[in-house]
Amino acid sequence: MKNILFLVMLLTATVTSAQVDTSALSISGFVETYYTFDMNQPDNHTRPAFLYNYNRHNEVNLNLGYVKAAYAENAVRANLALMAGTYANANLAAEPGVLQNIYEANAGIRVSRTKNLWLDAGIFSSHIGFESAHSPSCWTLTRSILAENSPYYESGVKLSYTSDNQKLFVSGLILNGWQRIQRIDGNNTPAGGYQLTIKPSDKITFNSSLFVGNNFPDNVSRIRVFHNFYAILLLHKNIGVIAGFDYGAQQIARSSSDYHTWYSPIFLLKLTPVEKLSLVGRAEYYNDKDGVIITTGTPNGFQTYSYSVNIDYAIAPKALWRLEGRVFESKDQIFTLDDEPDRQNYFVTSSIAISF
Q1: Using CA atoms, how far apart are residues 114 and 106, in angstroms rounded to an integer?
Q2: Which of 131, 287, 338, 341 has its CA 20 to 30 A from that of 75?
Q3: Is 94 helix (H, G, I), strand (E, B) or coil?
Q4: H or E stretch covering 39
Q5: Reduced to 3 states, what is the DSSP secondary structure of residue 147?
Q6: DSSP class per residue in 168-189
Q7: How remote is the C-alpha of 229 from its chain's centroid?
Q8: What are the E-state strand segments in 111-254?
Q9: Rounded to whole angstroms, how far apart are CA atoms 141 and 178?
Q10: Are 228 and 244 in contact (CB under 8 A)?
Q11: 108-153, pLDDT tens digit by residue?
Q12: What is the three-class DSSP state of 242?
């Protein structure tokens, strides 16, 4: 709590003391509270370790809350957002001190007078995937397994270009690592990647994102290559589809030509029968039999199907109530029920999210 108070005071002091055009400055915020009931009823109230959102069982809690200051004028822009919640506790546990409370902190300059070409540096949202920690931006209440186990955030430098007609976005990145603000001790290897988004029309989006880097100290370096692809298709004003596929490979050992691999396909169907109400069904599969990303210690590793159905209702223009039922079914007994290993996990989550 002391860290959060210090950061809020720092943000307030920076905003009030800087000589800025207040018309170019905006302050916003977000709060999402939730309740999850896990049918396996863990005694420590902690959900499976591969989940970083809504991961507390049978308690009302804050998943994510943040306050954000954004500045944009002519050829400069900057963002600073400070957060709290169980998401921050779980997903940024590897970061030191106050860095665990940074949701976003970056500054950018426009490097072309005639084109939308920007150079940004700092901490920003990941260039991978169609989901983020900001729930209203996602079709489902809980995040997919592939989103939970690929970067939500990254730090480094990004050069990005958006075409005048908004149909093409491309960026190249140099990063501190795979979901890292502070580098791993002993790691001096730059990581990087790209993002390419094509929108032939308002109803069709194709995205390709790549990460390449080493997530270990240099003396035991293992190169990781990861590609994310997804397509968003709005088939009708009331029907939408998302289809995605992630594939990753990582060296078994330094200088090895052999790789462990993992992959994950996903499919979502969204129906909006009336203006304020939407229904989403999701089916996905995550195969990490070698335990590169999710370690289980079982013979077949993490090979898990997941299915969910959620209902969303817009209480007000900036207030959203959500309810979701979800099941995991794994090849091995990686879950626990009544202190015994089990292959399945059922749970229900509800949340209220308000933006301001």
Answers
A1: 23
A2: 131
A3: coil
A4: none
A5: helix
A6: EEEEEEEESSTT-SSPPTT---
A7: 15
A8: 116-125, 153-162, 168-175, 191-201, 204-214, 223-236, 239-251
A9: 24
A10: yes
A11: 999 999 999 999 999 999 999 999 999 999 999 999 999 999 999 9
A12: strand
